Amino acid sequence: MPIYSSIGITASVGRSGQNRAQDVVAVQQRLNDLMHSPRIPLVVDGQSGPKTRGMIKDFQKSVLGFRWPDARVDPAAKTIIALNDPSSEGIWAQMSIPEFPPDPGPQPEEDDEKGKGGAITKQDVIDSTIDKIKATQSITSQEETYYRQILEDIWKANKGAYTDGGAGLTVEQREKLITIGLNGFKIVKMSLTFAAAGSAAATVFGYMSMLAPFLMVYGFYRALGHAMDSGARVYGGISMAYYTTYWVFGGMKPVSCPTFVKRNEEAPEQWRTDPDKLETHWRKGQKDARRGLEEYCKSVAAKTGTTQAEAEAVFKAALRIGKPSMLARALLTDISKKARAEGDHNVANVLKLFADELIYPK
Fold first, then answer.
1. 203 and 352 belong to one structural domain
2. What Gene3D superfamilies has UniProt attached to this entry (predicted)?
């Protein structure tokens, strides 16, 4: 019969699911609404027995084309979406009842598995990771879009270890990548102002929102606050911004100190700093940035139960959404605002000038 509303479940239904009675009832009734003869309607009793699991399996095989149906419906995953899709009724009605071999126990979840020609592809891994995230918590469409971009970066960083002549991944390799992606999500949630980043990714505002927790706690503001004069604060801040950009993007040398020595010489007298002091501030800024980044990633790793290397990789991926110049500009702009808030307007003005006239050669 036609369906006119969507169902929702609070937890998994079917094999190895939580099988809360109200959720099982919702799935049983929806399966009955969508099926046609010769399929026999289920008894809507809130019990996830073999007939209910078998019908879920039938639906997954017939409507979704799963090679390894798992007889389970998870919140926000592909099976529940299909159960809420009116077009599923017509598809299911045209399919014969599949014959399943004796249940061999838990099998790979087809939601995560199916790719072109049966191969496990990048898109399969990304979709599976997102589905597993949605099964445990709610994320907005903006957050999902943003995190999918990060998963693309995670894939690029790891796929070299998981290639098989273009034949796709093995199930074990897929599970490894999914685990990396799920850990990455924990790291992003811990380290970034996620909602702001999701709504403003690849903008200066988005970067500043992401970096705020890091800047406030680890190395940057703390180091600048200990600077002895305005020159130290200006060039130390610039060095921090450029070193961080180099650290995130890799393979690109940060702007050398001589570039800023030259600009310093050409600046009005009131803005100049002794070249030797400038060199000292520049080196100190890079050292402070490196220490701050290491401390930050170590802290995030400890809080998320991941390794420091994994935290570093995900943090870099999260900040590689835009261009190198955008990241450096965001850092300089935020440091400038911090200096202005503390009443150091001269330092704030110079940092803002460098942010607006950014030079970042590749």
1. yes
2. PGBD-like superfamily/PGBD
